[in-house]
Hints:
This protein is α/β, with parallel strands linked by helices. 35% of the residues lie in helices and 20% in strands.
Amino acid sequence: MxxxxxxxxxxxxxxxxxxxxxxxxxxxxxxxVVVINSCAVTNGAVxxxxxxxxxxxxxxxxxxxxxTGCAAQIDPASFAAMPEVDRVxxxxxxxxxxxxxxxxxxxxxxxxxxxxxxxxxxxAVDQARAFVEVQNGCDHRCTFCAIxxxxxxxxxxxxxAVIEAIERVVAAGKxxxxxxxxxxxxxxxxxxxxxxxxxxxxxxxxxVPSLPRLRLSSIDAPEIDGRLFELLTQxxxxxxxxxLSLQAGDDMILKRMKRRHSRAxxxxxxxxxxxxxxxxxIGADLIAGFPTEDGAMAANSLALIDDCDIVHAHIFxxxxxxxxxxxxxxxxxxxxxxxxxxxxxxxxxxxxxxxLDSLMGTEQQILVEAPGNRGHSTGFADFRLDQNHRxxxxxxxxITKDHLFGHAA
Length: 409
């Protein structure tokens, strides 16, 4: 066993952060350092970052402690002022070896000036699947969101680099790859020829025929073009699981959020998708208690769970972010926000339970996950297995009540 000190990278937030954290960990091999890769999507996420910093310092008092990620990028001075922190490194620098080789306490550049993705892609590999970064940043300015300040403008990885990365993880035995990004469906507009996400998916499937399962992370409904729609509904190797960034189900709230779709657009898209591929499982992000939301508006968002057959819901009570337009709008009482979030979660749990019940007696292809007695189906239903299998294998299972994981009967 090596006696060298080992780095520890603690990730908060999105899948992209997790992928970037693994890249950072490889760069820091053999160094006595703790890195907090922060999130800024809500005030709660920033608070969790500070808690993680203090906990990490107590656990490793002699290690160099660095903070990076979106919270550090947006407000570097506040993290640099924490007595536990030795260094703050920005999102634009965190994948650059020279930033970690430097001794500067503060390395945070202007994200708005970035025009290219990091020279090497962030790839996270767990025991079952791999997450490959294909896009970073966002050009949209939703009124509630601080992430563009932390991630900068939209930037895409060339298809050749993405395919090479996927070929490597498939050669290493991974049977599922997840494409990740901050605004995944904006992929390609900044590349020569302006390729689309659909064209990237198509090239991956052609160039890596040995890849059994390709999954997409969260995507924006208005940017699903005809080619991507066709692949999502007709290509068996593209998983029937789509997570949509919907955020609300009321047209006035969507307008005040500065979203680019209407309620009817979302419902119509899901109807078309599920008509073409009925087994497709829909996920969505929904924000409860956005500024100015009244009871009728909240009811419209609640009804969206049934209208869009949302079985994988990520529910967040609205969190005002400094510097965003929504933070200056009339706010909904915090307790009411939490109550509305709880109502949405309850409705989504009922919808998910009904969906899982509908899978009884069906045969599902399960990707086995650690420690070998559980896994996810193509539609990302989480199942318990009746015996251990080799992690990363895809097995066929006939679903019974005993296979449901975490399901209230």
